[in-house]
Amino acid sequence: MDAAMDELLDRKTASEGELKEAFCVFDGNEDGFVCAVELWSVMRRLGFKEGRRYEDCMRMSHIFDEDRDGRISYLEFRRMMEGCEDFLVQIDGMFMP
């Protein structure tokens, strides 16, 4: 599944099926939502410097949690990934080195 994430991030465009597959990678407990802990786990596994600290993932989760329920739904995830370039710009520089 990490290959699917790599391809998605490389192309910066994805089909609905690819987005759903990527969401499943992040949704570790399969409850239909991505929490900061799940985000942290995947970001570290994929080697993103932005995900090294849990606090960073909490901030990222807060940015895209539109309904403020403390977790990212599939629709919120899709919006985040559809604007992947904007997402990367938005989180760039917000983290401690």
From TrEMBL:
EF-hand domain residues: 14-49, 52-87
Pfam families: EF-hand_7
Gene3D superfamilies in the record: EF-hand
Domain of life: Eukaryota
InterPro entries per the UniProt record, alphabetical: EF-hand-dom_pair, EF_Hand_1_Ca_BS, EF_hand_dom, EF_hand_pair_protein_CML-like
Protein keywords: Calcium, Metal-binding, Repeat
A GO term, aspect molecular function: calcium ion binding
Cited function: Potential calcium sensor.
Protein name: EF-hand domain-containing protein
